[in-house]
Design goal:
Elements: H1 13-40, H2 43-55, H3 59-64, H4 79-108, H5 117-120, H6 123-159, H7 163-172, H8 178-193, H9 198-242, E1 251-255, H10 265-270, E2 274-276, E3 296-302, E4 308-312
Helix pairs in contact: 1-4, 1-9, 2-7, 4-6, 4-9, 6-7, 6-9, 8-9
């Protein structure tokens, strides 16, 4: 059963539109994450891993044939391809959210204005966000795969497993976290204890690994899409404030998605807090606060009476 975006619908139409942007781009991001892992651990690399295991068998020889990310060699293949793929999806989500936020804000104020991306975002801030986000994703992809390979090879060596079996296990667990790799190992052991063996055992383990990989790619993609739309929206608000469309005293308020026990203490603590558009909530600058966070923000202009005029609930 696929993971839900949230337990209850956001109450404001604008907030629903925000989630709709993240939902729209999530499948493309999930596919890009899966492609990144497959590109890193492509058939050529997997063949070299198999040869290293058969000829030498040492962990160092296996790790040497995998092109893990090296910040001193950012143009080493396959990372430029992975970077372009991820950057494209993140930019599209970011800009869609920024344009949507600006349009809704202008519509609520009764204004008429033809919007272009240069009107609603600062390109320098946009590029910095994309570069930092993609850079973090690349490190995550490389490091998690490195840890998984280290675990499998070390366990295989300690148990005296046939090198070809170890190679198959590495192929099966491409893209999984170490704990997920361990879960696949445990499932394989359980199935073997129940009498499954040979090709049937490996196929069953592979099906389970694919399920875990799909869920992991989904977690990463959904969190990154929510982050991109949140960043794009904030850039839009700040740009419109700089251009005089929003007054200097405009503020934003954190909205925690309630309605169930899934709402975490961090988000409940932040719920209702308001800050200047250029401010920070302390532990984070904006939603999401954590993986699979369901929070959003609203921007408003305080009235003299102490009440607030909600400009948009994005």
């Amino acid at each position: 059963m696929p993971l839900e975006w949230q337990d209850t619908r956001p109450p404001e139409p604008e907030a629903r539109a925000t989630y709709a942007i993240a939902v729209r781009f999530e499948p493309a991001m999930r596919a890009a994450i899966s492609r990144a892992f497959r590109t890193l651990m492509n058939p050529t690399v997997l063949g070299e891993i198999r040869r290293a295991l058969v000829i030498d068998g040492s962990l160092s020889s296996v790790m040497a044939v995998i092109p893990f990310y090296d910040p001193h060699r950012p143009r080493q293949e396959p990372w430029p391809i992975i970077r372009r793929d991820l950057s494209n999806i993140i930019r599209r989500t970011y800009m869609a959210a920024a344009l949507d936020a600006a349009k809704r804000l202008i519509d609520k104020a009764g204004g008429e204005r033809h919007l272009h991306k240069r009107d609603v975002v600062r390109e320098a801030a946009t590029q910095i966000y994309i570069d930092e986000t993609v850079g973090s994703l690349i490190v995550l992809i490389s490091n998690s795969q490195q840890e998984a390979v280290q675990r499998i090879v070390a366990a295989g060596t300690a148990a005296g497993i046939n090198p070809l079996t170890t190679a198959r296990q590495i192929k099966t667990t491409v893209g999984l976290l170490p704990r997920e790799t361990k879960a696949v190992e445990n499932r394989r052991a359980l199935l073997a204890s129940e009498g499954l063996s040979g090709v049937k055992l490996e196929r069953a383990a592979e099906r389970y690994a694919k399920k875990l990989h799909r869920l992991r790619a989904e977690r990463i993609a959904r969190t990154e899409m929510l982050d991109a739309q949140s960043a794009g929206r904030l850039n839009s608000w700040q740009t419109l404030q700089r251009d005089g469309f929003l007054p200097p005293n405009a503020r934003r308020r954190w909205i925690a998605e309630g309605g169930s026990a899934r709402t975490c203490p961090i988000c409940l603590e932040l719920d209702g807090q308001d800050i200047p558009l250029n401010g920070s909530y302390g532990i984070v600058d904006r939603p999401p606060a954590h993986v699979m966070c369901r929070c959003s923000e609203t921007v408003y202009v305080p009235r003299r009476s102490g009440s607030v005029n909600v400009v948009t609930g994005l």
